[in-house]
Amino acid sequence: MRRRSSVPLAGVLLLLSPLLTPPVGATGRSHCGPPSTHVQDLSSLSHGLSEASGLASSWLHAGVGWMIRDSGHPPSIYSLRIDKGRPVVREIRVLGADNTDWEDISYSRGPDGRGRLWIVESMQSHRDPYIYEVLEPDPDHATTAPLLARHRYQYPGKVGFQNTEASIWFDDHLILATKGSPTRLYRFATLDGPGPHWPAYVGDLHGEPRISMLRASPDHSALIASDHQSMAVYEGRGPGSHLEDFVGKGPAYGKAIFRGDNVEAGDFFPVGSCDVVMLAESRRVYRILGH
């Protein structure tokens, strides 16, 4: 865990202004205006909840996000709410799972309409890693969550070992982003069947080395990427962009620096909001206000 310190995030506001757009119909609006000039420091997660490594907003439970923690911690997911400006967290154990090296979490909906949480294990253990498919539990009452499947995966061909700390659910497919320079994007056509599953190489993102967080704006016009110490914005071809519209590009906007902190997780939070919430390994929680 890195030492705690304050983080000058005002520069992030300028980066996010073109992409703070909630899902159409989520709030009755299809576009957010420019963000405010105020960044809220929401203090810290509870003592003992350091090393957050992923955050995904729930699409079905209003005001809820799902957090995971890095290796060395229980195989648990954590429901996150912001209550009166402070983060409130509940731990929910994932039955049948092992937290060998959980690095990111993303969200989708299954054919039954219920939420799915996709927890990506990195390859730092130098063995074939897993992607854990978890049925979204009741964030306020559940104490355990059912594990639907554990999908073994490998990178194709002679790519070999790839450290992976960032993922995203994009256009109904799970995308992995490798932690290297450049960032290499891989897409799973499906995760059905026994595996191992090999994602297909899509292309590279340039200029933001060793990213640990990747998220799409709600209208898919841009991507946010963070490499622990900085954040960058990649532009596609406008609303409804495909993943291929981002590859081969560098950041469209300059970097915002997270000096002295180690930001590993973030998402547009909650769904339907123009705000962005970021989590650092130091337990600090930050909210960038939009309107």
Task: Please explain how this structure is put together.
There is one protein chain. By secondary structure, this protein is an all-beta fold. The chain has a single domain (10-288), classed as 6 Propeller (Neuraminidase), CATH 2.120.10. The protein is 2% helix and 43% strand. The chain has 1 helix and 20 strands. The strands form 4 sheets. It has an 8-stranded mixed sheet, with no helix packed on it. It has a 4-stranded antiparallel sheet with strand order 1-20-19-18, with helices on one face. β11 (173-178) and β12 (183-187) form a beta hairpin. The model is unreliable at 1-37 (pLDDT under 50).
List the helices and strands and how they pair.
Layout: H1 10-16, E1 39-44, E2 52-57, E3 65-69, E4 76-83, E5 86-95, E6 102-109, E7 115-121, E8 130-135, E9 144-152, E10 164-170, E11 173-178, E12 183-187, E13 200-205, E14 213-216, E15 222-226, E16 230-235, E17 253-257, E18 263-268, E19 276-280, E20 284-288
Parallel strand pairs: 5-9
Antiparallel strand pairs: 1-20, 2-3, 3-4, 4-5, 6-7, 7-8, 8-9, 10-11, 11-12, 12-13, 14-15, 15-16, 16-17, 18-19, 19-20
Outline of the structure:
This protein is mainly β. The protein has one helix at 10-16, and strands spanning 39-44, 52-57, 65-69, 76-83, 86-95, 102-109, 115-121, 130-135, 144-152, 164-170, 173-178, 183-187, 200-205, 213-216, 222-226, 230-235, 253-257, 263-268, 276-280, 284-288.
